[in-house]
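Q: Here's a chain of 155 amino acids. Please give me its 3D structure as tokens.
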Amino acid sequence: LARMSGGSLRRAIAMASDEDVMAVRDAVLHFLRQSYVGKGDSVVSLVDQLARPGREGVKFQLDLLLGILRDLLILQQAGNTDLVVNIDQIDTLSKFASNLPHARLDVMIESVEQTMMVVERNINVRLALVTLSRSLAAAMRGEQAGVIPLELVSG
């Protein structure tokens, strides 16, 4: 929790009292795995589950996903576990990094950031998450993926 809170005592206390944070992070990791597998029905079911808490909940989940991707980037680029925030998931993260050496983590991070932006706007959250899943799947395979063009949702 100390690492996940980014050094903020207040955030660490809030996370410690919220048992759901770890469950949410597990759901986010499951979303990442299912995005790679790409089975439409399971992804849509998972998207429904992730969208349930509303926009703020989705933004929190996307923030957790960014933290996971940051950790993967550190492992991929430096192989250093000292800076990994989700240290309790180091085995899972290490497997990901070694099994998907061509993953475009930069594209994955950009896709999550763009999804966060469109979630703040009046766009269908489920559509944004399904689009994110497709983008992540392509990027995990080393491909450049499309994202929701911001021009379509800018007001």
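Q: Can you summarize the key feature?
A: The mean pLDDT is 83.
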